[in-house]
């Protein structure tokens, strides 16, 4: 790190400027955790000065994943951003930057606010015609468009981000444009198309961004191995990617690797083996995916501990993992025989019967949503033909994606249901 003199005295403004530059340099160098900490220090030094807006927006590189450790919110930083956005007659360009910074600070925690802030940033950037601001706004909107309600925007956002960045000769953003197009292809079940965009994102990556895009390409390789039924390869890839991302300074790199392992153990019907690890890591995490730990503890034969950790009343953010975690919550509801929650999950999951839970994230999946719907239908006492239809859809989706493990499992369940007629 850089040691500088205290803020008192004639050099205070210069010191703050250097701290802002330091945070930006760390971000450009790929040290996400270091950059976030340095920005926090720069903001503290800039309080009450004309440099505060620059300090709040000095994390100035494309964002492909949350930059917050454990996705926790810095409430003080958010309050400062909101205060500056409430100031009278702000400079439009700076307002756009502040809005984007707010999105990156509260995504996955305040769906309504990030949707409003990203929409306003898009409007301002369109009016100003500044390509760099436009790319920033598109990046902010793209980060939250992986959720179920905005997923339809991914293709257009990625295409515009790619075209705008290329036309203006901006570095970093073309790679992020391909990343959005990668996720759009996954939402269409076009795995080969997704691979093409993953490769293009690597080719377009700039500087330290290359390491992160290589990491995402590798984790997609783990996902493809998991879908293809090669759980051994998937497990090895997820472990290596988690270590690589963590070493590269990626926030939550180890957690990404752990969630990948959850997908593998879930596919192998061995999730109980992760019960202690998930209870230790996920259990105490505020707003964490408690369903992961609860389901693993149920699989390990510890329903009392599962019940104690489970927080089904906490809503999941409408982000890239909403479908994955909602499917897992549904499985826990089935495990506990919770018919009220099962009915809620059934309604929420029904529009997603055509896909694998988590596939569009590009990182991990726990199999066909249709199979989860079939289990919910059984708990809710729905007619046999409803469950049969869901299981037939699970077979169809699995076959379409070349997922033999889930296809066999769905066929066996379907045969069992038909045999009870």
Summarize the structure.
The chain is mostly helical and 421 residues long.
Q: Uncertain spans, ≥5 residues at pLDDT below 50? A: 1-8
Order of helices and strands: HHHHHHHHHHHHHHHHHHHHH
**Which strand-content bin applies to the residues?**
under 5%
Fraction of residues in helices? 55-70%
Identify the overall geometry.
Answer: globular
What does the largest sheet look like? Answer: none
Derived structural class: mainly alpha
Overall mean pLDDT: 92
What is the end-to-end distance?
70 Å
**Rg calculated over all Cα atoms:** 23 Å
Counted by DSSP, the helix tally is 21
Q: Would you report the number of β strands?
A: 0
Report on this model:
The protein is mostly helical and 421 residues long. 68% of the residues lie in helices and 0% in strands. It has helices spanning 12-28, 32-46, 52-56, 75-85, 92-106, 111-128, 131-144, 154-168, 173-187, 191-204, 209-227, 231-247, 253-267, 275-281, 290-299, 303-309, 322-336, 339-349, 369-379, 384-401, 404-419. Helix 7 (131-144) runs antiparallel to helix 8 and helix 17 runs antiparallel to helix 18. It is globular and about 80 Å long. The N and C termini lie far apart (70 Å). 52% of the residues are buried. Mean pLDDT is 92; it is low at 1-8.
């Amino acid at each position: 790190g850089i040691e500088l003199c205290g803020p008192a005295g004639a050099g205070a403004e210069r010191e703050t400027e250097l701290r802002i530059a330091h945070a930006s340099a760390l971000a450009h160098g790929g040290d996400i955790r270091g950059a976030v900490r340095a920005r926090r220090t720069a903001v503290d030094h800039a309080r009450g000065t004309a440099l505060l807006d620059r300090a709040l927006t000095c994390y100035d590189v494309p964002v492909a994943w949350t930059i917050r450790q454990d996705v926790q919110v810095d409430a003080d930083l958010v309050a400062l951003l909101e205060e500056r956005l409430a100031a009278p007659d702000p400079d439009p360009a700076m307002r756009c930057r502040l809005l984007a910074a707010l999105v990156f600070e509260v995504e996955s925690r305040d769906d309504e606010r990030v949707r409003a802030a990203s929409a306003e940033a898009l409007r301002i950037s369109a009016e100003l015609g500044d390509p760099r601001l436009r790319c920033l706004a598109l990046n902010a909107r793209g980060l939250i468009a992986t959720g179920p309600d905005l997923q339809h925007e991914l293709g257009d956002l990625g295409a515009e981000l790619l075209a705008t960045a290329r036309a203006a000769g901006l570095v970093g953003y073309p790679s992020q444009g391909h990343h959005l197009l990668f996720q759009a292809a996954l939402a269409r079940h076009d795995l080969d198309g997704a691979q093409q965009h993953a490769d293009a994102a690597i080719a377009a990556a700039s500087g330290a961004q290359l390491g992160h895009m290589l990491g995402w390409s590798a984790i997609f390789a783990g996902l493809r191995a998991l879908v293809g039924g090669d759980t051994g390869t998937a497990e090895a890839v997820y472990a290596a990617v988690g270590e690589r991302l963590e070493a590269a300074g990626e926030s939550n790199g180890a957690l990404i690797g752990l969630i990948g392992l959850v997908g593998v153990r879930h596919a192998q019907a061995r999730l109980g083996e992760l019960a202690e690890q998930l209870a230790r890591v996920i259990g105490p995490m505020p707003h964490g995916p408690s369903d992961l730990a609860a389901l693993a503890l149920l699989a390990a034969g510890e329903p009392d501990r599962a019940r104690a950790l489970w927080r089904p009343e906490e809503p999941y953010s409408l982000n890239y993992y909403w479908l994955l975690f909602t499917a897992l919550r549904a499985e826990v509801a089935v495990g506990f025989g919770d018919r009220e929650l099962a009915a809620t999950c059934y309604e929420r999951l029904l529009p997603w019967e055509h896909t694998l839970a988590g596939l569009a994230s590009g990182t991990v999946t726990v199999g066909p949503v249709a199979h989860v719907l079939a289990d919910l239908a059984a708990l809710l006492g729905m007619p046999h033909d409803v469950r049969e239809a869901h299981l037939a859809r699970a077979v169809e989706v699995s076959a379409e994606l070349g997922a033999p493990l889930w296809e066999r499992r769905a066929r066996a369940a379907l045969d069992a249901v038909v045999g009870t007629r």
